[in-house]
């Protein structure tokens, strides 16, 4: 699919325009992120805390891992955005996530849920459904996780994506329509939908799946872009979380910037250790020209998805 | 000792054959691991979760850190193999380890215990002895830890190995004979025994001791090889954990692949930061030819060790 | 300020001498650290455990993360030094920190507190003030954190330093005088005071702020140098924690070695991923000649600071 998208002869004028528009909008949000260094509150799993913080710092955001009760709530209220990742949800962190989500909802802080490995694992699956009812701004997962959250699949084995992105497209649209969240499905081609529009981003590199945190850190980067979009809205007089349209653009921007940075880091003969290092360098270096040159984005819009109910 | 083993003039024909056999058997298991991507369930310490996951991903296995109660048991039952590392055993993780080990035993999932820093530290020492009674498939530690687990030493100071590998050889054989586990003792020369045979592997590089997780990630890699060996047995009709002979070969293969990769990563003027990066690259790249060229393995067999009792 | 200090024409003879003395004293302590490999007990946050352990290993110390109750106390009593970092203080870790600090105080183990992000966050702020009453050997933080601990500021937003080092100078001197600790304030110019003397170290690189753990690992390195200084005192007959004068020199040495290593790692076009790797290499390689060549240290002494009370 990427080869197809890469070949200008196979792109319609409409597709070229979509890629151009996405690159420009993403470049504007990336610039705003670097100007505003959104304070990105992460409640995330013990495997990826380090790489998540480093990805945010490299990109230009300010990470803060605050995952204990008594602090997660107050912090979510003042943060620019919040990520809740369910990768290693110990009891204290589960309560902290509940506290943070409630405070974020009240304060208008945009928040992202990453339902890592739900489906097969009962504790996190129950928590994911509980938090889903609190109106997340965005949901990020692989196809298996999105299918499980939409009630349409059995979930993956750990963080593997046993299902393909396209197989999750309908479930993602329905999940978006029902939850009010922008839903992002990671895969060789990333899919992002607000329930009506579907963006497909054919950037990135398979090495992202050979280093831990390749998906999880994208959840934090997504939160950071939502924080940047919000600060832009505030400048224009709004006080709440970004509306769905802003959120859609922010999630597209996060995914595009992240996957283009992965392309800059990858190359022939690059092993996973070297890739992880170069990827942080690339998150710091990626710019508007890279996005314009490399964006492979299509956007389709159609009937709103049927309800899950 | 490595110089001695490196010098072909000092190797008997028997030793050369042992190295050749170990390289061939390890190469077969490495190929099987990469074909089957064993789902490797890790309950491990907070310092090394990231490097452990990255080592498994680089090698070709699928890591999953599931360390909470209510999930650790169900997951151990479906995983290809389990690692329990006692490096930072908080109360929730201790209960999750008990739950996982019980489920692994019931389901026939092979499992590895790494009794980090037992001896001096009371909580983990008690837990290590408790888990030891549940018949681990393999035990991995440095000489001090193995001596402490065998009741023959006072343990190390943290993860340092205050004792030498050879000093632990007798304790390791008795521990293997009494526990039914394959015992691996890490050191400049790694020692692996099933209570009768003793393999000595003189590969590796001292830089492995200058990066955190150099030993802990080997425990996870050992679990992954046990998972790969098991899937091979399953293909041949078996349904349980690998028998002791398969387990011995799998632990030898894990150690050999890991230490040969360390050699590929090391070199003159390589600092510890660069080594850690190159080591992940090497785990992804190491192949049968590297094993054949570099394996320095001897295997001795003798009387079964006397009981610990 | 760094340009000014770099220019010999602007340095008084007194300033040149201070830099020379600091470089020589730091070189001696660095050599002692590498000879004695101080066992450095860390209770630290989940984001930086890995990089902290790797920084200590690269430098030549022996890290041990022991952060559960029942073990933290006994271990603090036998460790060379202790770090308590409040970055992600879950309930078990808070109790472990209390246990460790009590045991360290009783055993004469020098200990460092790093009050990460206190001020805005209530749980850790209360704990920091509680632990402060137990006579830490050293306190390390950014300007916002030191102001908050001294009761003179509102704290930062996460680990950002919203305040400047010089703005915290008076608060740091009063905090040192009242607590009996050496106080280190991180920033573009690091400030270290025992309540009377103030050392300013104008080394380092801004890339340290673009990788997570840039400040937190310095807390652990500070503990390691206090451990090394103590073992030197023990050799000379003392049995307790280093006295304030030794502690001042040790904290200066830790900061100087760490920031000079950062300079060795940085360079034109170096991104944050590459910097993190090269920084570990540099911690292993930094030597007396590097300190002599690069040290930009001034020391002023004056009236003891007024009390906080």
TrEMBL record, chains A, B, C:
One of its GO terms (biological process) is thiamine diphosphate biosynthetic process. InterPro entries: Hyethyz_kinase, Ribokinase-like. It holds the Pfam family HK. GO terms for molecular function: ATP binding; hydroxyethylthiazole kinase activity; magnesium ion binding. It catalyses: 5-(2-hydroxyethyl)-4-methylthiazole + ATP = 4-methyl-5-(2-phosphooxyethyl)-thiazole + ADP + H(+). Gene3D superfamilies: 3.40.1190.20. Substrate binds at residues 65, 213. Its cofactor is Mg(2+). Residues 1-23 are annotated as: Disordered. Pathway: Cofactor biosynthesis; thiamine diphosphate biosynthesis; 4-methyl-5-(2-phosphoethyl)-thiazole from 5-(2-hydroxyethyl)-4-methylthiazole: step 1/1. ATP binds at residues 140, 186. The keyword ATP-binding applies. Keywords: ATP-binding, Kinase, Magnesium, Metal-binding, Nucleotide-binding, Thiamine biosynthesis, Transferase. The keyword ATP-binding applies. Its EC number is 2.7.1.50. Transmembrane segments: none annotated. Catalyzes the phosphorylation of the hydroxyl group of 4-methyl-5-beta-hydroxyethylthiazole (THZ). Belongs to the Thz kinase family. This is Hydroxyethylthiazole kinase. It comes from Agromyces agglutinans. The gene is thiM.
């Amino acid at each position: 699919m990427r080869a197809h998208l890469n070949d200008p002869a196979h792109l319609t004028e409409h597709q070229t325009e979509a890629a151009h528009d996405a690159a420009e909008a993403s470049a504007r949000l990336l610039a705003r992120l670097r100007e505003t260094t959104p304070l990105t509150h992460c409640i995330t799993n013990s495997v990826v805390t380090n790489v998540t913080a480093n990805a945010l710092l490299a990109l230009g955001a300010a990470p803060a891992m605050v995952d204990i009760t008594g602090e997660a709530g107050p912090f979510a209220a003042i943060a620019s955005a919040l990520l809740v990742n369910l990768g290693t949800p110990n009891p204290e962190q589960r309560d902290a996530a509940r506290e943070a989500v409630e405070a974020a909802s009240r304060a208008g802080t945009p928040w992202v849920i990453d339902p890592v490995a739900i489906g097969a694992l009962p504790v996190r699956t129950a928590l994911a459904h509980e938090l889903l009812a609190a109106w997340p701004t965005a949901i990020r997962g692989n196809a298996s996780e999105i299918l499980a959250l939409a009630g349409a699949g059995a979930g993956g084995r750990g963080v593997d994506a046993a299902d393909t992105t396209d197989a999750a497209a309908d479930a993602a649209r329905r999940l978006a329509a029902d939850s009010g969240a922008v839903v992002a499905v990671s895969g060789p081609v990333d899919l992002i939908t607000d329930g009506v529009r579907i963006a497909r981003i054919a950037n990135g590199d398979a090495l992202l799946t050979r280093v831990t945190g390749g998906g999880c850190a994208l959840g934090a980067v997504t939160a950071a872009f939502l924080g940047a979009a919000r600060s832009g809205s505030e400048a224009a007089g709004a006080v709440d979380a970004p509306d769905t349209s802003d959120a859609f653009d922010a999630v597209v921007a996060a995914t595009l910037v992240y996957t283009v940075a992965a392309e800059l880091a990858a190359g022939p003969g690059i092993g996973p250790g070297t890739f992880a290092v170069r990827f942080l360098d690339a998150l710091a270096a990626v710019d508007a020209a890279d996005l314009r040159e490399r964006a492979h984005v299509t956007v389709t819009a159609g009937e709103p998805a049927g309800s899950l109910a």
